[in-house]
Task: inverse folding
């Protein structure tokens, strides 16, 4: 990893980052960025082996990190994450909710009730559960901050991504409503909306050439990196954004203002209708 100077915006702060086991990945990049800026970080993901490997890597970089495996949306996991933060570091200040995915890919005409509810639940409940648990253990005590990872999908009309777009629309509405609800208690809630991002979860869409071809299709001529998203997350969590709440920040190499119709997603590209597995940390346009 290249030596690089970072500000110390999070000295004495404690963060929880979900979906932080893949590298490159938005969760891992966010955890690393917060820790590099002085935060103590609890990281979480479903797969224990990969999560423990990420924990070892971050610790080898001199970063203060504790791993807690488990599916973020399962009963008791959010509470366990918050309890670990408080027990290990004395408090909880910052939340980064990156868990999401695409359990169903295909036309809305083929979408079942179960598929729709599963997709909406996957992309909304884990983050909300963590906010609830953190509020119960003092998130508001020091003026906490939350960032949810959304997607550019609600701004598009990609037929095969109807369920995902609906789910991220729900997350966006939840973000704004939580911002209203918690703002009077001193807690800010924002979201970052990545487009196609060079992560492990999206490797099938860029991996053949390192993302060069996909990047050329973007307005700014390059693919968004996980570190780009992490930088936006860190800004929104920092005191520099102390008057910002309820916003959705696009980090997508200009994709949201591009007039082109290209999308990397089609049923054939990701396994056919219903064939794409839920992918924690995957980001789509």
Result:
């Amino acid at each position: 990893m290249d030596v690089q100077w970072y500000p110390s915006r999070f000295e004495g702060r404690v963060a929880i980052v979900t979906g932080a086991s893949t590298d490159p990945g938005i969760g891992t990049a966010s955890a690393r960025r917060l820790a590099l800026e002085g935060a103590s970080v609890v990281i979480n993901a479903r797969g224990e082996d990969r999560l423990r490997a990420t924990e070892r890597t971050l610790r080898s970089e001199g970063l203060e990190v504790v791993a807690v495996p488990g599916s973020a949306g399962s009963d008791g996991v959010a509470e366990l994450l918050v309890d670990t933060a408080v027990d290990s570091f004395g408090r909880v200040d910052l939340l980064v909710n990156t868990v999401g995915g695409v359990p169903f890919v295909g036309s809305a005409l083929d979408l079942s009730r179960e598929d729709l509810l599963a997709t909406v639940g996957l992309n909304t409940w884990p983050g909300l559960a963590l906010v609830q648990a953190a509020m119960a253990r003092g998130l508001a005590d020091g003026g906490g901050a939350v960032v949810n990872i959304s997607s550019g999908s609600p701004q598009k009309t990609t037929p095969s991504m109807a369920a995902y777009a609906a789910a991220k629309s729900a997350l966006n509405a939840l973000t704004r409503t939580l911002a209203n609800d918690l703002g009077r208690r001193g807690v800010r809630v924002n979201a970052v909306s990545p487009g196609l991002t060079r992560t492990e979860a999206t490797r099938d869409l860029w991996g053949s050439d390192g993302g060069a071809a996909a990047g050329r299709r973007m307005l700014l001529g390059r693919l968004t990196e996980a570190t780009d998203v992490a930088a936006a997350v860190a800004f929104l969590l920092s005191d520099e954004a102390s008057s910002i709440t309820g916003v959705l920040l696009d980090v997508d190499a200009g994709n949201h203002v591009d007039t082109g119709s290209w999308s990397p997603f089609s049923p054939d590209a990701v396994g056919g209708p219903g064939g794409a597995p839920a992918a924690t940390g995957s980001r789509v346009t």
